[in-house]
Amino acid sequence: MAKKNALGKGLNALISENAVTEEPVIGESNQQKVKSVNGKESKLPAAISTEEDGSLWIDPNLLKPNPKQPRIEFNPKQLEELCESIKVNGILQPIIIEEADDGDFYIIAGERRTRAAKMAGLEKVPVQLRKFDEQKKLEMALIENIQRADLNPIEEAMAYYNLIQMGDLNQEEVAKRVGKARATVANAIRLLKLPEDIQHSLASGQITSGHARALLMVKNDADMRIMFGKIVGSGLSVREAEALADQYNNGGRAAKKEKEVKKNNKKDADVLNFEQELRNIFGTRDVSLKGDINKGSIVIGFDNKKDFDRIYDVLMSKK
Fold first, then answer.
1. Of 99, 111, 144, 156, which one is the catalytic site residue?
2. Active site residue 111
3. Is the pTM of this model over 0.70?
4. Within its chain, how far is the Cα of 261 from the centroid?
5. SS3 41
6. Engineered SS bond to 229: which of 51, 66, 169, 283, CB 3.0-4.6 Å?
7. How far apart are CA 151 and CA 8, in angstroms?
8. Residue 301: how many CB atoms within 10 A of its CB?
9. What is the pLDDT of residue 267?
10. pLDDT along the chain (319 residues), means of 10
11. Do the strands 105-109 and 49-50 form a parallel or antiparallel pair, or are they unpaired?
12. Residues in a beta bridge with 299
């Protein structure tokens, strides 16, 4: 039960429960002796300084990103806001770091604070020196990001997936470790089944997770592509996208599309690719090139005035 509530307790709970050891292996020539909380003598790298209250400090420029950091993108505006806060209040919570065997220092939790501290021009930042196994590095970074600033859906999905692979865990076990419902983890991981370009649109905020789940409902890959074009081109709501997915799956589009795909497979590959690009641009399935790339005509079909207006706007925007 303690692990299930680790997220609610915060990172300190995770550290105390899951830290492998609190004393990294370091060389004698690069050590300084300090007194630990329990009175025993421990050793620290020379790059880390200590204050009278026992706090540890290091130059932020010596810190390298956590190699298991799930976050790929850092919001510039949020970093600037954190930078301004640090200039006024300093860093209120130490950055958790680990010394690698090669003597480098890696951020386990606190990369946003480290980046903001560099922006603020700080020459030293408070740290906690710990040692974690590879799985815990990922787990710590994931939990910190969920607590403080949401990962985008694809980053979060990849983090859950990596936890499963590295720790040989199932979705239920991952859910307990990060304090989420199993369905939340399962739905996130399903997003990785989307084509790469649709994943990119989800990560960038062009479509929402609700839209992505609606796309995953579509059984026919070609229909998924058409629906994606409609979501982006027409601004479909999630409910409208779900209704369209249901329509496609029940023969409204899928059966007809399958016949068209078989027929179009006889066309030149360049022609087929060109037709698909046009379908994505106009958000409609009824686009075809009559003839070949040397001579012919392009036919764009539409089902209603809303489709016509969208196609018209796209064409006019190209002027």
1. 111
2. yes
3. no
4. 34
5. strand
6. 283
7. 18
8. 12
9. 63
10. 39 41 34 44 77 88 78 77 89 87 84 90 90 72 62 85 78 84 91 92 91 93 90 90 90 54 58 77 76 76 75 74
11. unpaired
12. 288
Alpha carbon distances (Å) from 88 to 77, 82, 85, 115, 122: 17, 10, 5, 16, 12
Q: What is the pLDDT of residue 145?
A: 63
Can you give the C-alpha Rg of the chain in angstroms? 26
Amino acid at 95: I
Q: Please tell me the predicted confidence (pLDDT) of residue 253.
A: 57
229: number of Cβ within 10 Å: 21
For residue 43, the Cα-to-chain-centroid distance in whole angstroms is 37
Distance, in Å, from the CA atom of 3 to the CA atom of 193, rounded to the nearest integer, reads: 29
Q: What is the distance between the alpha carbons of residues 170 and 265, in angstroms, rounded to a whole number?
A: 41
- The one-letter amino acid at 134: E
Cα–Cα distance, 300 to 281 (Å, whole number) = 11
What local confidence, expressed as pLDDT, does residue 280 receive? 77
- Output the six-digit token pair for 52: 């009278």
Question: Of 136, 132, 130, whose CA–CA distance to 167 is shortest?
Answer: 136
Count CA atoms within 13 Å of residue 318 on its CB side.
7
Helix axis angle for 305-317 and 269-282, nearest 10°, is 110
* CA-closest candidate to residue 191, choices 163, 215, 173, 224: 215
Angle at 233 between CA 230 and CA 238, to 5 degrees: 55
Tell me which residue of 291, 216, 285 sits closest to 256, measured CA to CA: 285
